[in-house]
Every structure is written in structure tokens, then in C-alpha cells.
Write a structure and sequence with these properties.
Chain lengths: 217, 217, 217, 217
DNA sequence: TGATAACCGAGACGGTACGTCCTGTCTTGAG
DNA sequence: CTCAAGACAGGACGTACCGTCTCGGTTATCA
């Protein structure tokens, strides 16, 4: 509630500058990597004074976070528009739920395949990997990354697993927040740390292993 | 193998400086964090010329990597010595295998509980998290981190799971390298990204879920 | 004469703002020095928008110049009022002439002693020194300073010396504009450049040296 | 004596950088003026890191002061060399005394004419005016300017006037330090403040007025 | 008696320079 | 040759002001 700094007046903010800064930040991170991207460089590329960046963002990570969220929002909107063109009215912003066809394994495989696509799309990969790395190194950034990028997606899995529990497809006693990690975390770790390549086959296998366990039946 | 630079003469290297640099690097990373740790700072704290660092290491991450490996080796040696005092001669450096009591679930839970202890020990946590973050941001560092810190540990799980397959405790058709991720990666992600707290209960649960699957039997 | 910019309408100018800007400028210059006085600082102290300053003045030096002239006018008015209270009506603004008692040496010593007083009065010293310095550095400012602050005073000496020439107290062939510099410039230089302290004794000595020369008679 | 900062090691100082900085500072001040000359600009023009300037000098004025002193020394050396070529051995650095031909007026006029030449030489005029202005605005700089540039020259006049007093050409009771100001300060003020042009005629007149006084004989 | 045009406070904006910090290279003198 | 020490060219940091601009909000004539 309380203002800590001279509090800039958001209503007079330059929309043009904001968009130019987002674009410059994403371009530079993609071209040169996060470490070689500088506030000065973003300002220069965006044709903006440095102070305009420092006025509205607290750090390089903060700029990139918002730029990435903006990119994700716009992309989601486009995807939704295309889907709406095909399937009828659905003006909802944000993806609110995982598919539920009744076949849990198939639904999870579908979603994870889409995640693989996204993780391998260079427009998303470079900035989101940079944000993840910065979030690991800096706890404050980490909280933001988890709260705004990671946890919302994970909650969709929680909901889908709860539905599966109600349908009798998942043991009723287990914790969905832990269960989802069995197939999500392995993918995340392979992608983040390059421990091994990721593919549709791999995520399909993860779902099978997780649903039916490692021990023989 | 091949030397690219004027090749420093390793036989004349100052052992004292090397140890002082390791100590300074670990102290500074723990005190101030990786980002605020600088080569100049390490040199000053170690009472060493900057060139001595640049002569033997290629980057801040490289210094910290070796310092951390050295710390881990020394700690492992001490642990081994204590174990040897109790159980007889065992001069082997490095832990070569996971325990195999015949009870796979119990063995995995034991090892994961030890991992939790290590991940929460501040002497290890700060530098290894820094290395992980740097490894995500910088692919070259990432390869080193995976090859020297991560993969060796994972291979121990592969071996234990193969033994379990031979014993009939794990389905014979599944890939151990993927299987191990069901309980290792969730722990890794929670620790790396602070998505949720880690505990003995949590790792025990992971083992149960992974071995017996999410679907009802 | 001709206006180059959108020509502000002087009749609608805010008198309150003008006075607040003068006060703020003089205060800040006195407190912090000319270099650390900024347009933003003056605006903030005066509770005025920056544009109000840029609308009416062309530079920091310009603001200070007017503020100083205003201060000098007001002070002269007060002095004149006091004198008028004692000696009868004299509503004239500005001091029009040096005293002429018939004793040139005494008159000059009196005026120079008053000048010493003014040069050592902190309310005048700081801003006028700042203006002098800026006038030396910047030729445009210099012209203003000389025309508005310096030359008017010097002309009073010219007039008094001309009277002395007519009275036979000064050689008739010499140039009064040069002659006055013999006692005025030394005082100016000592004050401006702190080459040596200034005092009544010093200015008295200057008058004696200048009137009667260095060579023996 | 006591070191206040990490004290750079002067013996390892780069002579090349020092000379490049002097040259760049003088060039920029002459081309663009003191106010538009920046430390960054000097560093860039000299092909030098900014830190190299901040390591050895405390301010822009300090750089320019040393650069100007260096220029003056070198010029004096060249002049002395030329004089020595004509008149025999005279390896003395610095001009130690004013000429003394026995004719005080002639000697003073000669020296003041040389001063006029120097004050109008653009290589000297721009930087020395800048230093004078900065010295008026900033007391610390002012002390340096007076001690290193101004007072040494004035002391030469003191010596010449003392000799004249011994020779009976100047009244024995007067203070040479004040006396010299009668012809030096007017020239200084005209030059500094552009109150009027300076010329040989003008300085000749000053000497005459000062020696023989304003009052009729 | 509104309209309309200015000045006004406020402050965001594109820029420039500041003085500091650190990088990775190079140089010096001691061992 | 290594080493401690640290000067060097370079470049990014985050801050402070510059001078311009735009935004509502008062005035203060004119229609």
C-alpha cells in the first residue's frame, strides 16, 4: 500500500516505450544471451533513456519477466483466436483447464507434448531458461518466476488429477500436488539442465511410468 | 588434451594459493552470493594476484566448480573415515554404490533422506545452487556441472534399479535412466526452484508414488 | 526585439512564481554553491514546474543574474529609504553618482571601503562570485555581467575622475577609464582570485599609490 | 605525507597515457570549451580508460591544470633553448627573473607586452581562462591556480620592484606586493572579464600611470 | 456566461555524463 | 617460471540533470 520511492505516475506512462523495451529485451536475450544483455543495451535498442527503464522496473530480470509474460499473453491470445475460429465462441484469456476426455493418460500425454513443443520453440526457450536460471540464483526473482510462470501451470495438473480421482482413475488417497511432479519435474529437469534430450516418446513414457508405477503388478 | 595457451607449468603451481583460492571462493559465495562474488574479491581474500586465478581457471564458475568438488571430496573422505573406523578397512575414495539390502523402497528412501540433508546443509547448498544456476544460464558450465556433479550420482540409481530389475522388484522392460527421474527430479525441482519445501516425508512419498504408480491397482 | 520562440505572454506571468524562483535560486547558490545548484533544484525549492523556469529564462546563469539584480535593487532601495529618512526626499532608484566633497582621495577611499563591505557580505559574495566565474567561462554571460553589473559602477568612477580633472586634482591628459583601473582592478582581482585578503587599509593604500605613483617625487 | 586512498603506485604509471591525456584535455578544451569538455571525452580521445584518469587526478580541473602546466613548461623550455642557442649556455628551467636594464619603465613595458602576447595566444588563452574561471568558482581549485600559475609570476615583479627601490627608482616605503597590482591587475581584469581590449599601448599606459600617479606633479 | 486560450505544477521522456566497479590482459620486481 | 601486486583499456552499472514534451487544473480575457 505504502509508496517507498517517488512513485512514478503510471497513467502518464508511455505505451510506445514499454512495447519497445519488451521487444528489445526479448531480441537481445535471444541474440546474445541473458548475461550479455545489458540495461544500456536494451535502452539503446529500444531508443529509450536508461531512466525510463529504471523508473518502471527494478532489474534486468524484472524487465525480462514482464516482456516474457507479455509475449506469452499475446501468443496465447493468438492461439485462442485461432481455436475460436474453428470451434466457436471462446473469448477467455488464459488457458483455464487441461483437456478432460475421460482418458487421463491420453490427456496428459497431449499436454506434455505441447509443453515439449513450447520448450523447444526458440522464442520461448531462451528467455524462459534465462528467467529460470536467474530465479535459481536470486530468491526474489525466483518467487516471481514460480508464482507467475510455474505454479499457475502446475495448478492445472492438480485440477485434472482431482477430476481423475473423482472418476476413480487415480488412487484417492494421494496428493495431486506431489503426484504431478512425477511427470512434470523430470521433463523440467531435462530441459533446464540438459541432462538428456526431450521428445514426445520421452513424455509419453513418463506418463506411463508415473501412472502405473515401477514395480510389477 | 591439447594446450591452447602458453601452457602453465603445473608442476610449479603453488598448492598454498590453490587452497586459499578454494577457501576464499566458497566463503565469498556463501557470504555474498554468486553474483556479488568477483574474481578480484576472491584474489584479494585469498591474498593472491588476479593472474594466478586467470592462469589456472577460465572463469568464476570454473573456480567455484573446482572449489566445490574439492569440498565434496574432503567431506566424503571424512565421512568414509568415520565409517571405516566403525566397520573395518575401506580406503576407497568416492561413494561407489547405493546400499542394496534387498528392500528397494527402503534403500531409496534412505538415500533420498541423505540427499535432503545435504541439500539443506548451507555449506553445500549455496555453492551448488550457484553452480546449478550458472549451468542453466551457460551451456558450457552446464555440461561440466552435469558431467561432474549430477550424472555420476544418477548412475548410482541406474545401477541400483538394474539390480532391482534382476531381483524382480522392478518391471524388466522399463528404462532405469528414465525411471530414476520419477523420484529424483521432483526433489531436484523443489530444491532448485523453491516450488515447495522438501522433507523426509516428501521423499518417502515420492518413492511410494513412483514405485506403485498413481493409478489404482 | 524579435521573438524567436512561441513568445510567452508576459502580462499573464505569475509574480508569485517569479519571486519564489529568485528566492530559491539565491538560497541554493548560497547553501550549495553554483555548480551544485540545478534548475530542477530551484524548481523544486520554489514549488514551481521546470517549464516555468525554461519559459522565462534561458539558463541557470540567466536566472541567477536576474535574481541577483533583484536582490541588489531591493537592497539599494532599502538603503536609499534609510538615507531618505535621515536626509530628506530622494526617491531615485539606483545610485547615480559617487560623492564629491572636493577631496578626491577621501571620496575614493570612502567608496572603496563601502565596496569592501559589500564584497565581504555573504548575501552578495556568493552569487556575485558565481556570476563572475560563469561570465569568465561563458562569453555570452560575461557580456551580461559586464554590462549590467560591472560597467555601470565603473562609469561612476569615470565621472568622478572627470570632475577631478576639471578641478585640477588629476592630470588632464590621462584616460579616466584606464585610470580607475589602478585602484579598482587590484581590489577586484584580490576578491575574485583570493590572491590576498582585502581590507580598508588595503584600499586606502591603493588610492594613495595610484594617485601619487610609485616613483619618488 | 599520509596516504588517504589505496594510493596508486606512481613508479608504474604509464607515461604514454599521461601524455595522451594532457593532449586530449588541451585539444578538447580548445575545441569545445571547458564546460563541454568531459572526463569521458578526454578518456575517449586519449584512448584511455576512465579509471586511469580518476586514478591520477581528482577532477576535470585537476587534469587541465597539470596539462596546462606541462604545456607551459615545454613551451618555456623551447623558448629557453632558442635563447641559449643565441646567447650561450643557460640550461636553467623556468624563468627566474624579470629583465633589469636599469630602466624600470622600459623593463615593465617589455614584460607586459610579452604577457599580452601570451594572453592572446589561443593555445594558452582558452585553457588558462578556463582554469581561472574554475578557480573563482571552486576555492580548492582557486588555491592551486594562484599558487602554481599566478603567484610565481607576481613574485618576479616583487623582486624587480625591490631592486628598483634599492636603485632609488621607486619610493622605498611602499609595499611591492601591492604596487605591482597597479599595472598587473588592470591587465588581468580586462583579459578575464573582457571589460575592454588589451594591447601594447594599453600596458604601456598602465606602466606610465602607475609609476607617476594620477595626480599632477 | 460560457468558450477558449494562456500559464501553471507536475513529472515522464530521450539523452549525456557522472564516478564506481569489475573484467581480462599486461608489466614489474621478488623468490 | 610462478607469484603478489596492481596499472591498464574497456564497458556496464545506477544516479543526477539536462531541456523538451504532455497532462489536467486553474485563471482571465473575449464572444
Amino acid at each position: 500500500m505504502a509508496a517507498t520511492k517517488p512513485t512514478p505516475d503510471a497513467s502518464r506512462r508511455s505505451e510506445k516505450s514499454r512495447r519497445a523495451i519488451y521487444a528489445a529485451a526479448l531480441e537481445l536475450v535471444t541474440e546474445a544471451g541473458y548475461a550479455r544483455t545489458t540495461i544500456e543495451g536494451i535502452a539503446a535498442r529500444a531508443g529509450v533513456g536508461k531512466q525510463t527503464i529504471y523508473r518502471w522496473w527494478s532489474s534486468k530480470a524484472d524487465v525480462l519477466m514482464e516482456a516474457y509474460l507479455d509475449l506469452a499473453d499475446q501468443t496465447a491470445e493468438q492461439t485462442a483466436d485461432q481455436a475460436a475460429d474453428q470451434a466457436g465462441a471462446d473469448p477467455a484469456p488464459g488457458n483455464y483447464a487441461l483437456p478432460d476426455t475421460g482418458d487421463l493418460a491420453a490427456d496428459l500425454k497431449l499436454v506434455l507434448r505441447a509443453t515439449v513443443d513450447e520448450l523447444l520453440d526458440p522464442r520461448f526457450e531462451v528467455p524462459s531458461r534465462a528467467l529460470a536460471a536467474e530465479g535459481i540464483a536470486d530468491a526474489a526473482v525466483g518467487r516471481e518466476v514460480v508464482a507467475k510462470l510455474l505454479e499457475p501451470s502446475l495448478q492445472l495438473y492438480v485440477q485434472r488429477l482431482r477430476a481423475a480421482q473423482r472418476a476413480g482413475d487415480v488412487r484417492p488417497d494421494l496428493d495431486p500436488r506431489i503426484a504431478l511432479e512425477l511427470f512434470v519435474s523430470p521433463l523440467a529437469q531435462r530441459w533446464l539442465q540438459h541432462t538428456a534430450p526431450i521428445s514426445y516418446d520421452y513424455t509419453d513414457t513418463l506418463v506411463d511410468y508415473a501412472l502405473y508405477g515401477l514395480a510389477p503388478r
